[in-house]
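Hi Y.,

Following your request, here is the sequence exactly as I used it, all 420 residues.
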Amino acid sequence: MRIKRVLIDFFSLVSLCMWTASCTLPTATQKHPSQKPLAQVETGRYLVKAGDCVSCHTLKGGKPFAGGVALNTPFGVIYSPNITPDKTTGIGKWSGDDFYNAMHLGKDNKGKHLYPIFPYPWFTKVSRSDSNAIKAYLDTLTPVHQQNKPNKLKWPLTWRISVAAWNLLYFTPGNFKPDPKHSLQWNRGAYLVKGFGHCGECHTPKNMLGATRKGNKRFTGGAVGNYWFAPSLSDNLRLGIGNWSVPEIVRYLKTGSNDKSDLAGPMTEVVMNSTRYLSNPDLNAIAVYLKNMPQKQLVTVTKTSKPDLTTLHRGHSLYMFNCAGCHMDNGAGVPHFFPPLRGSSAVQTKDPETVIHVVLMGASLPPPMSTPAGIAMPSFAQKLNNRQITDVVNYIRNAWGNRAPLVRTETVSAIRKSLK
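Below is the corresponding structure, written out as tokens. Let me know if you'd prefer a different format.
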């Protein structure tokens, strides 16, 4: 009887252990091989926003990160690739090493050179751990089976070996190295600006072969896309952000507006898809770095004569009738509603394309960043002809102490045609 009781207790204990084991939640060491640690995935999700990956890899109306976006260059059209984890058309078969080589060296999983429209000259500074986090996040996306479109490039750029020659001339791979002479905050800002943010890709002039200029040309402004100009990020008081405070830079990157400027053109996508999602510490770090870049930039302006009195008079009349109601007689604007034109670096840039674009197309902050009243600048394309737009733009670029090269009517005409 005693033996029987012992056997019953023994089998009961075994059954209890087996039941308990079957009900135990999986631990981190028991996860499925395809699963990634949650913290790593969330880091990757954040860094994908910091890099504004969605803007280039998501076609309007298409599936997220499935590629197909036409990226116009002076050498032809390059279509962004599918970076979802689809195994045949995406990067589902890419290893962590493959992905890091793309970010760090500009090569795909087969060792073929990527075109530098993919900003690997900037992403090369990204650490291996951050690269792994991005790949971990991308692996969690829904795979999209979408073939990559063939590029439309001029010969001999259709040969990928041409990129190898370009790299020899203009590309230096290497992770970001903190500067011990600066604070952790400054170094974090430098890492984001020179790495993930690839800010210099737009805000630095390029040479004839599409490489960003170095030295004292860094962050002094550059042409972007079809008739847009990204202004200087230098400390120049008139053409850069020398008169912007750290809080004003943070506010602009978070909301698209501050007391110095409002969003327009390609920067709208940057704020909408990227910087507004960044943490306040990271935004402050970016602002601190921009205000304390190691090499102060000297931005020069081509010496040109001011508009003649007749041109200024025509421009002044047009401004008072069409613009002064919002931007005020003295060009000071209205804080939180209408940006100032007086002293604006965007207005006084060497290249006037952005100002002309805004006058032709109008401008507004997209939801959820728009003003409570939904106030927006209207388009004047139908109201003003090319000569009138030339006159009013020349006026605002040379009134109230502003100074900028004269705009030609032919430039306005070319931009108007490009909009069609």
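The two ends are 97 Å apart (CA to CA).

Thanks again,
Q.
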